[in-house]
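Module 6 notes. Inverse folding takes a fixed backbone as the condition and produces residue identities as the prediction. Think of it as a translation problem where the source language is geometry and the target language is the twenty amino acids. Below is one complete input and output pair. Work through it position by position during the lab.
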């Protein structure tokens, strides 16, 4: 069976209207074998929920039909019971991402949606789950009028009274609007004006929206951006869209062929990592449906939307969208939390997401054991300031440390760098270089030659950071470290945070410049180079300092970088997503001073609830402790 890698699309819709479908447990195994990381189910199917326990598959779960919505709308205690029976009974072993209150409800029932959503949300608040599980509703495209051009999109007058407060609720709870987007339906209804190529992601059609200036090459993006325009006109421009259904039938009606279905769904798979012209970046999307369902009612096409036949064979071939191994992006795995997954689960997350580099901040034995033969490259921190002093004190101390923390694991654990100290300050800075020398000697004595020894520094070891060419080390000890790294061929590990630079000076530094967004160009008259983002400027400042320390051949590895999603100046999900996606997409190109692939590590894998310091420190995670994403990121470069 050909492998259909839908991780970038995020998920498929699992309908069960068939009398010949596989058991729920086999379906979950099929999802896992195909690399499908998320699914939607249309009611709280207990057999499916049980099969999903521990699978790592994130789900959208619908509350049920309009009767179920009406019950939740009129009865807050019913919402509490529903959350208890269908969420708390499975969470967190089942990763529930969204609860859908109503699927394509008609205008006559739309007044039920908001009170039902509010009651379910309140029940989640009472259960302590509202930050992890979001409540939304799934709408048809026909709630939007004036969809061409996309910038004219507006909620229909007869549903505006419902959609505007729903959108405000979503904005207030930081939840997405779920939208069922079917270019097939639009094409079938108007094949004279809509070309088949445009509807199925094939080349040959370009449509320009003269009001927005944006250009569209496929109908799917235009439809999504029409909904974004409607949200803007409703006063909620920050609400994100998740496409809760899209697909194309392979038989049973006009233009319903295996070839057209393959082209459309392949186009979705290849397109969503880029987002739309109006909202570039990953677009969370669910393909309808997993199977051809022989008991679907309505026209014949409804029974032919499946990616798979009931016997689990593909309905038509889909070329996998391979998520490339992330060659230059790693993620820092901090453990300062009391609700984090087990080390083995975390390693499996890295593997399933294609993240093949990790940093840990001490030689945690459970993590090191879990990393054996995983193929993940590792930065291993020696430990805190006391460990740096201990390693500097004697060569025998370093030998003991290597004996206990490196030899039992290497090479089954692919330890790439040892970080002797992280952002060391004060008198301990004088111990960094002797500690590095001792560790290198201990590695050599143990016959281990493949591990480089370095230290991780903050950006404040650099003085004169603007323009980048003026960069110079602020402390004399750094010159000795730089020259030692040059002699051993090791990189300098640098923690680079445009967030802190921006938060400290938002008047002078533009948010776009700090988050890899277009609109700002800065020229360094000292070297003639032009910068379009703050990250590059900060890294090149370090390169300038290395050159001035006669260590111009030392490579910089960015050992930490990230952006918080809450609790601070500029700390939001949108900004965090923009920054971290920008970093992932950018590092393959390097900096103006050092073009080429750069190695960088995002901080951090999880929101860590026991981090001390500013509140932002607890919100740098890409994932919640339940392993659901804080926001959508595509790990490719």
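Target side of the pair, the amino acids:
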């Amino acid at each position: 069976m050909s492998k259909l890698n839908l991780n970038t699309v995020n998920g498929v819709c699992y309908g069960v209207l068939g009398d010949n479908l596989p058991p729920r447990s086999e379906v979950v195994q099929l999802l896992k074998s195909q690399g499908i990381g998320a699914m939607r189910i249309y009611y709280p199917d207990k057999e499916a929920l049980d099969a999903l326990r521990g699978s790592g598959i994130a789900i959208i779960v619908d509350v049920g039909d309009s009767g179920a919505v009406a019950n939740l709308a009129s009865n807050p205690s019913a919402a509490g019971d529903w959350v208890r029976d269908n969420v708390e009974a499975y969470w967190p072993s089942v990763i529930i991402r969204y609860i859908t209150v109503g699927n394509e409800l008609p205008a006559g029932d739309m007044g039920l949606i908001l009170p039902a959503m509010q009651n379910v949300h309140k029940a989640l608040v009472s259960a302590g789950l509202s930050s992890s599980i979001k409540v939304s509703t799934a709408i048809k495209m026909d709630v939007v009028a004036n969809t061409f051009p996309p910038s004219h999109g507006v909620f229909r007058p007869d549903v505006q009274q419902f959609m505007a407060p729903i959108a405000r609720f979503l904005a207030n709870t930081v939840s997405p609007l779920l939208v069922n987007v079917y270019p097939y339906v639009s094409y079938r209804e108007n094949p004279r004006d809509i070309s088949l190529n445009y509807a199925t992601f094939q080349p040959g059609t370009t449509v320009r929206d003269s009001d927005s200036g944006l250009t569209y090459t496929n109908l799917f993006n235009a439809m999504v951006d029409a909904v974004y325009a409607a949200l803007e006109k409703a006063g909620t421009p920050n609400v994100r869209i998740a496409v809760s259904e899209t697909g194309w039938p392979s038989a049973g009606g006009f233009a319903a062929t295996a070839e057209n279905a393959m082209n459309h769904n392949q186009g979705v798979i290849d397109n969503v990592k880029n987002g739309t012209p109006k909202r570039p970046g990953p677009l969370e999307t669910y393909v309808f449906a997993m199977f051809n369902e022989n008991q679907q009612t309505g026209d014949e096409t409804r029974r032919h939307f499946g990616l798979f036949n009931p016997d689990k064979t593909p309905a038509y071939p889909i070329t996998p969208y391979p998520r490339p191994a992330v060659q230059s992006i790693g993620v820092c795995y901090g453990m300062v939390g009391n609700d984090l997954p087990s080390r083995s689960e975390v390693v499996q997350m890295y593997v399933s997401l294609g993240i093949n580099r990790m940093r840990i901040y001490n030689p945690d034995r459970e993590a090191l054991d879990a990393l054996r033969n995983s193929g993940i490259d590792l930065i291993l921190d020696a430990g805190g300031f006391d460990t740096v002093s201990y390693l500097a004190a004697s060569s025998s101390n370093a030998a003991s440390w290597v004996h206990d923390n490196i030899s039992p694991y290497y090479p089954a654990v692919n330890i790439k760098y040892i970080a002797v100290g992280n952002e060391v300050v004060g008198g301990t800075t004088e111990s960094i270089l002797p500690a590095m020398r001792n560790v290198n000697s201990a590695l050599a004595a143990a016959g281990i030659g493949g591990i480089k020894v370095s230290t991780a520094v903050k950006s404040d070891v650099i003085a004169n950071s603007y323009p980048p060419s003026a960069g110079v080390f602020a402390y004399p000890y750094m010159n000795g470290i730089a020259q030692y790294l040059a002699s051993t061929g090791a990189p300098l590990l640098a923690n680079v945070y445009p967030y802190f630079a921006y938060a400290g000076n938002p008047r002078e530094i533009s948010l776009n410049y700090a988050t890899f967004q277009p609109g700002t160009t800065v020229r360094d008259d000292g070297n003639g180079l032009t910068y379009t983002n703050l990250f590059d400027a900060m890294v090149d400042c370090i390169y300038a300092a290395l050159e001035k320390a006669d260590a111009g051949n030392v490579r910089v590895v960015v050992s930490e970088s990230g952006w918080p999603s809450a609790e601070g100046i500029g700390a939001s999900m949108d900004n965090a997503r923009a920054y971290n996606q920008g970093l992932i997409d950018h590092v393959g190109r390097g900096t103006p001073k050092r073009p080429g692939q750069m190695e960088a590590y995002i901080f951090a894998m999880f929101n860590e609830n026991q981090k001390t310091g500013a509140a932002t420190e607890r919100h740098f995670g890409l994932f919640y402790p339940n392993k659901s994403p804080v926001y959508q990121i595509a790990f490719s470069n």
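Reference fact for the lab report: Residues 10-188+220-308 form a domain with the TIM Barrel fold (CATH 3.20.20.80).
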